[in-house]
Every structure is written in structure tokens, then in C-alpha cells.
């Protein structure tokens, strides 16, 4: 297979598939059935997270260091773990970020990157890829602001691909693949701009919900 490109990624997401690398770097394309999504309208921050949001423990930045977020996400979680984020994947998604189609939401303490997530935005769909944290709650706060951005910009679909405990705590559910493809087709018909909103406004309005 030729080197993975940003165009390959765009084609894949438009058709409901996404790549992951094996331990040896070999790329495979996936289209899970069922598919995991997070309904944007049902998300609520956990009660334990609200004091963290109110204290403004973290500084939030959008697309400030996309590649570094990917590299932190690629670090194996344990000695027995391996990563699906290869150098080839990092290169292709970084190009997609430079094109304005891949985005990162990052959390900082004292100007140090301590958590974040990244994904791809096409039409009114956002495809969440991975997240990391080095300080408690850092990725949860990044995810909270991702949801606020997607709501403010009127996105319709948040794809999280596979169900697991990490996304389940944010309200992820599984739906049949054919239903997902219908939602995807509908979301791609609309244009939504992934842009940094008035974060202070979003914070003040939602942290007390």
C-alpha cells in the first residue's frame, strides 16, 4: 500500500471507515458494526468534574500543538500495551490539521501540555480519535470543551468508533452500522465550522448546568 495521505483519510471518513496501525506499522481500515457515538444533546459533565471547571484549573487551547497531542496519545498506556498511532498516521493527520480538517483540544497548566484529544471534522460530523492525560481530569476537561464547541457550532454527529469504558463514561452508545451511515450521510450534508468559540461564555453557561 502507498503511504497514507490526507486525501485517503478524507475518503475514508466520508465512507464511514478509518485506519489503525498494527504493531508492525501495517495499516488496516475499520468500519465497526455496531458503531459507537456520543449523542451531543445528552452529555452532561460528571458532578465530580464541575468543581474542576469552576476553579478553571486548566487553560484550554485549540490546535496549538496538534502533532504533540497525537504523539502523547500514541504513548502506550502500559508495558503490555501497544499503539495504533504510527508515524505514518501522525504524518497524515498532521497534514489534515494543516488543511483545517483535523483539530485538537488541549489542556495546559503553567504553559505545560498535560492533556488533550484530537479528531477530524467534516461537514457537521466530528470523528473523535484519541485522548491522553498526564494530570487527573485533564482529558475530561478537554472533552467537555469539545462538546461545548460542537454544540455551539451545531455539529450533528460525534463518532467515537468503538465502545469502551473510557467513552461510555461520556455517554457513548452503540448503534447499528446502517443507522450510523444514515446519520453520517445526513451530517455531511451540512456545513459546520470547527472554530474556537467564546470559551469564557461557554464555561459560565454550562459549568453550572
UniProtKB/TrEMBL annotation:
<dbReference type="Pfam" id="PF03588">
    <property type="entry name" value="Leu_Phe_trans"/>
</dbReference>
<comment type="function">
    <text>Functions in the N-end rule pathway of protein degradation where it conjugates Leu, Phe and, less efficiently, Met from aminoacyl-tRNAs to the N-termini of proteins containing an N-terminal arginine or lysine.</text>
</comment>
<keyword id="KW-0963">Cytoplasm</keyword>
<comment type="similarity">
    <text>Belongs to the L/F-transferase family.</text>
</comment>
<dbReference type="GO" id="GO:0005737">
    <property type="term" value="C:cytoplasm"/>
</dbReference>
<dbReference type="GO" id="GO:0008914">
    <property type="term" value="F:leucyl-tRNA--protein transferase activity"/>
</dbReference>
<dbReference type="InterPro" id="IPR004616">
    <property type="entry name" value="Leu/Phe-tRNA_Trfase"/>
</dbReference>
<keyword id="KW-0808">Transferase</keyword>
<dbReference type="InterPro" id="IPR042221">
    <property type="entry name" value="Leu/Phe-tRNA_Trfase_N"/>
</dbReference>
<dbReference type="InterPro" id="IPR042203">
    <property type="entry name" value="Leu/Phe-tRNA_Trfase_C"/>
</dbReference>
<dbReference type="GO" id="GO:0030163">
    <property type="term" value="P:protein catabolic process"/>
</dbReference>
<keyword id="KW-0012">Acyltransferase</keyword>
<protein>
    <recommendedName>
        <fullName>Leucyl/phenylalanyl-tRNA--protein transferase</fullName>
        <ecNumber>2.3.2.6</ecNumber>
    </recommendedName>
</protein>
<dbReference type="InterPro" id="IPR016181">
    <property type="entry name" value="Acyl_CoA_acyltransferase"/>
</dbReference>
Amino acid at each position: 500500500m502507498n503511504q497514507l495521505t490526507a486525501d485517503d483519510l478524507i475518503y475514508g471518513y466520508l465512507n464511514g471507515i478509518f485506519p489503525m496501525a498494527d504493531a508492525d506499522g501495517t495499516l488496516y481500515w475499520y468500519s465497526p458494526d455496531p458503531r459507537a457515538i456520543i449523542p451531543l444533546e445528552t452529555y452532561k459533565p460528571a458532578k465530580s468534574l464541575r468543581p474542576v471547571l469552576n476553579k478553571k484549573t486548566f487553560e484550554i487551547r485549540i490546535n496549538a500543538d496538534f502533532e504533540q497531542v497525537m504523539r502523547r496519545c500514541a504513548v502506550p498506556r502500559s508495558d503490555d500495551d501497544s499503539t495504533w498511532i504510527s508515524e505514518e498516521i501522525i504524518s497524515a493527520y498532521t497534514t489534515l490539521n494543516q488543511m483545517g480538517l483535523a483539530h485538537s483540544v488541549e489542556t495546559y497548566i503553567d504553559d505545560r501540555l498535560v492533556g488533550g484529544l484530537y479528531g477530524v471534522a467534516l461537514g457537521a460530523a466530528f470523528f473523535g480519535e484519541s485522548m491522553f492525560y498526564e494530570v487527573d481530569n485533564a482529558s475530561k476537561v478537554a472533552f467537555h470543551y469539545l462538546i461545548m464547541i460542537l454544540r455551539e457550532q451545531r455539529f450533528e454527529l460525534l463518532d467515537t468508533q468503538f465502545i469502551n469504558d473510557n467513552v461510555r463514561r461520556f455517554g457513548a452508545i452503540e448503534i447499528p452500522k446502517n443507522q450510523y451511515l444514515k446519520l453520517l450521510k445526513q451530517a455531511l450534508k451540512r456545513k459546520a465550522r470547527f472554530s474556537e468559540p467564546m470559551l469564557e461564555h461557554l464555561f459560565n453557561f454550562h459549568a453550572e448546568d
